[in-house]
Amino acid sequence: MATQRILDFLATRRPDGPCLVVDLDVVRDNFHAFEKALPDSKIFYAVKANPAPEVLRLLAQLGSSFDTASVAEVEMALDAGATPDRISFGNTIKKERDVQRAFALGIRLFAVDCVEEVEKIARVAPGSRVFCRVLTDGAGAEWPLSRKFGCVPAMAVDVLRHAKALGLDAHGVSFHVGSQQCDLRAWDRALGDAKMVFSTLEKEGIVLKMVNMGGGFPTRYLKDVPVAQAYGQAIFSALRKHFGNEIPETIIEPGRGMVGNAGVIKSEVVLISKKADNDNVRWVYLDIGKFGGLAETMDEAIRYPIATPRDGDEVAPCVLAGPTCDSADVLYEKTPYPLPLSLTIGDEVLIEGTGAYTTTYSAVAFNGFEPLRAYVI
């Protein structure tokens, strides 16, 4: 998955220490693939996946809109060239003063999942459009989302009814089927819930206009995943099934699917050891771990492909761990990772598919290890 441009960069620049390299050509190709797969849906890139200014500028130039989780991300999208009408404040948990600040910056589209959030927006962002997030089960996702966000469909009806009563534009509903979602049927279940909210409110004269179908579009790690076109066909079929000929405006929020396969982390083997003379499993320690950007190895949810200079040699399972003085900094132990027996201290390895959710998870220099450096080419 490392492009020739990334390999050439690493060979010529020889950056010291672990680093991420992102190839913008791959990001551009991914954007066009989403455009082709879902031509009638607006793309709102999830800034949290990788907020590198170069990535945001490219996507802004390509015509992308942006899903943001904070005022800082709103400002990043504006700085990248997006106009306020192309930005959604998609976090359902917002300080009232942050809503007020976003409104002052021109943002008029906000996510909610309870009447309390609606009331904040009505106070400081009058007349704004709101969409209510509906809970989904996340079945089929490798990184399922918890019950932290969203409400049951019946409550979503109450929330949007309340928004309308307070003078807000009850604009639509949203859902998220879980990150790295590999089940093409997941959107069908969620769109059924969305249609129920639409139909219930329509009987009261409240006509919703938009369904935000969230993210969840995967990137390839160790297992093959469906291509964007397959998701597009499955989602369009589900829309037709539930909404017939009256398909609402739709939004998608790709994050991982936009940038995941565009990035590669260069890492170095720091130590290879065993815990006993008769131990069959090696421990391989890298100079990057959970706290350096690989937080998504938590519960071994995301298993990254790892390329080594010894590929082709005989392999054996090993426990893979990071360099910090924290016992939680183990990447793969429940399911050991097969790596070449000839792998040795000092070897450089490439951790592929790491363009999403790596730099943003390594913002603190834990144990004095500097945050993950990134290069965008």
Automatic annotation (TrEMBL):
Cofactor(s) listed: pyridoxal 5'-phosphate
Q: What class of enzyme is it?
A: lyase
Q: Which residue positions does N6-(pyridoxal phosphate)lysine occur at?
A: K48
* Residues annotated as the enzyme's active site: C325
> Which InterPro entries does the record match to this protein?
Ala_racemase/Decarboxylase_C, De-COase2_CS, De-COase2_N, De-COase2_pyr-phos_BS, Orn/DAP/Arg_de-COase, Orn_de-COase, PLP-binding_barrel
Family in the record: Belongs to the Orn/Lys/Arg decarboxylase class-II family.
| Gene Ontology CC entries for this record | cytoplasm
**Pathway(s) annotated for this protein in UniProt:** Amine and polyamine biosynthesis; putrescine biosynthesis via L-ornithine pathway; putrescine from L-ornithine: step 1/1
- Carries keyword Cell inner membrane? no
Listed under catalytic activity are: L-ornithine + H(+) = putrescine + CO2
Annotated organism of origin:
Tianweitania sediminis
* This protein's name: ornithine decarboxylase
What Pfam families does the database record attribute to this sequence?
Orn_Arg_deC_N
One GO-annotated biological process of the protein: putrescine biosynthetic process from arginine, via ornithine
**A GO term, aspect molecular function:** ornithine decarboxylase activity
Q: What EC number(s) does this enzyme carry?
A: 4.1.1.17
Q: Which domain of life is it from?
A: Bacteria
User: Which keywords, in A-to-Z order, does the entry hold?
Assistant: Lyase, Pyridoxal phosphate
Q: Which residues form the Orn/DAP/Arg decarboxylase 2 N-terminal domain?
A: 26-259
